[in-house]
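Entry, Tuesday afternoon. Goal for today is a structural model of the target with zinc ion bound, before we commit to ordering more compound. Inputs were pasted exactly as handed over by J.K., no edits. I checked the ligand SMILES twice against the vendor sheet because last time a stereocentre got dropped in transcription.
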Amino acid sequence: MPKKILPDMEAFQFHIKHKLESWGFRSINKIEIEKDFKRLGLFSRNPKEGREEGFIFTSKNGLKVIVWTTFVLQDEKARDEDLGWVLITNGDKVLYFAHPFRRTKNFAANLTRYAWIARWRVLNRPLCPDCNRLMDIARGKGIRARYWICTNRTKHKSTKATKISWDYGMPPKALAFLKAERAARRKYIVRRRKDGKLANVAPLIRSGMWTVSRKDNMV
Ligand SMILES: [Zn+2]
């Protein structure tokens, strides 16, 4: 297994935060996390844990990208045992998540590359070729397999759902990167299940420190 190298303050500031902010991501602030906690009735099992830095990119079509960095600003260091995440969400629902990112020497580069690709996907959310409606994200057979779907059947000549590839229109350089990554990962399939299904609070739920007591308030 590659050696663990935790991102330090410099790596966090320059190789994660600045990069994400230059692409239009912003920090997820304490108030919005607290609001999510209240709305969902979340309670902590270990209130001593520091707050992990997260970033959000919001597109006009409603899809969001959320990046969890494992870095705790108040401690000026990364959490000792944790994984980075890149999610695509709509409301509280996680529609897609990239594989979890272990903190090795390429952590910042990998996390931000996947964040860029997820941002590209939400910015380029396709319109249905048969009826021009915005397409939705559907789950394929693999844990991370996705495709775009439009179920507006009555407006389709075929009267069937229209599907297009998840990578449709992806710039060649990004596509080449993804293909190489997928080929490499196929050799090292880590069966790691994501615990939470909630966007902003997912890392806390997956860490086992939090429980949702008000599922009725999920959006
Ligand atoms: Zn359609």
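The chain has five helices and twelve strands.
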